[in-house]
């Protein structure tokens, strides 16, 4: 069986696959962030969009996101920090490495997540480089 490319070293179906392909909900903001990384690596934009709320949706274009996701080869994800600001609000800092047009890139982001109606959502980026 294939390992999940979120970096957990777990089987895909027992890791992010249970969120992307099944009806299970991520229990933490970190699980959601990892599953969003995997969804981008698979160009599963419907999952990406369904896990977004508030300012993250402003200007979001599903077609553009899909085209970009298909042009990128995701290489590695490192979760640097995950902390709750409250029971309903969390922050995840991560660094993702990817290759686009044969050039290695790095995305370092601090992301905000909110828990609403029993599930976590990506709210937006707090900082990135």
Task: Describe what this molecule looks like in 3D.
With 129 residues, the chain is α+β, with helices and mostly antiparallel strands. It has a single domain, classed as Nuclear Transport Factor 2, Chain: A. The chain has helices spanning 17-20, 29-41, 45-50, 62-71, and strands at 72-86, 89-100, 103-116, 119-128. A four-stranded antiparallel sheet has the order 1-2-3-4. The longest helix has 13 residues, at 29-41. The protein is globular. It starts with 16 loop residues before the first helix and ends with a strand. The relative contact order is 0.17.
**Overall average residue pLDDT:** 94
| Assigned CATH architecture | Roll
- CATH structural fold name: Nuclear Transport Factor 2, Chain: A
Radius of gyration over C-alpha positions, nearest whole angstrom:
14 Å
**SS-based class:** alpha+beta
CATH secondary-structure class: Alpha Beta
What would the principal axes of the Cα set say about the shape?
globular
Q: Report the helical percentage.
A: 25-40%
N-to-C SSE string, H for helix and E for strand: HHHHEEEE
Query: How much beta, percentage-wise?
Result: 35-45%
